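Lab meeting, item 3. Inverse folding demo.
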């Protein structure tokens, strides 16, 4: 079954539930423009409680290398997720400076966006929805069948963009990703997760066909 990442986590109780549900990773957003931005002190508490149970992904948008490195060190991030205009060399420098693996987000509006992935060498590609003026987290879906262009790369694919407990099995069947990422689809309010929807998402993802 695909791995599951719960993103936009702002509370320890939601992160703990994600770990209990067998999540691969939790996403902590450090971009102040997001309604799901995580307080650094809360993020550090989540890390202390869960770092041996789940991967900790810090999400950044066009942040400086120094800021990302300092945050990764202070929080104990094992993954750095880049959602801005960062280039391929930036990915390598983040990996070198932090020791963390890198998730590079691509906003998909068509096949050309996926064909361009061959120029990148992160540890994971995250495919999200392209919405003009938005960096991600819109809750809107995209044509997941296009992801076959991305699966031709050797980099694992994490499917994102409008996933919910109701549609995640269909998304997995269409895109055949290594993992799936959800945020707004399991929320009761921005940054506040709904435990029942988190569990339903994990169950639906677990029941989807295995990647072949």
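The presenter then showed the designed sequence:
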């Amino acid at each position: 079954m695909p791995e599951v990442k719960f993103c936009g986590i702002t509370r320890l109780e939601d992160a703990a539930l994600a770990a209990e549900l067998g999540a691969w990773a939790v996403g902590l957003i450090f971009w102040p423009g997001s309604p799901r931005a995580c307080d650094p002190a809360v993020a550090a508490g989540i890390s202390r409680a869960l770092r041996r149970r789940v991967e900790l992904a810090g999400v950044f948008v066009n942040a400086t290398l120094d800021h990302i490195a300092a945050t990764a060190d202070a929080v104990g991030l094992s993954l750095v997720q880049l959602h801005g205009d960062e280039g391929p060399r930036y990915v390598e420098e983040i990996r070198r400076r932090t020791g963390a693996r890198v998730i590079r987000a691509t906003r998909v509006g068509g096949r050309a966006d996926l064909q361009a992935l061959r120029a990148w060498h992160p540890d994971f590609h995250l495919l999200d929805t392209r919405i003009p003026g938005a960096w991600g987290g819109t809750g809107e879906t995209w044509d997941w069948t296009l992801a076959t262009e991305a699966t031709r790369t050797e980099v694992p694919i994490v499917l994102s963009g409008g996933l919910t407990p109701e549609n995640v099995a269909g998304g997995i069947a269409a895109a055949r990703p290594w993992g799936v990422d959800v945020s707004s689809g399991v929320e009761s309010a921005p940054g506040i997760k709904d435990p029942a929807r988190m569990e339903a998402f994990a169950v639906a993802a677990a029941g989807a066909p295995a990647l072949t």
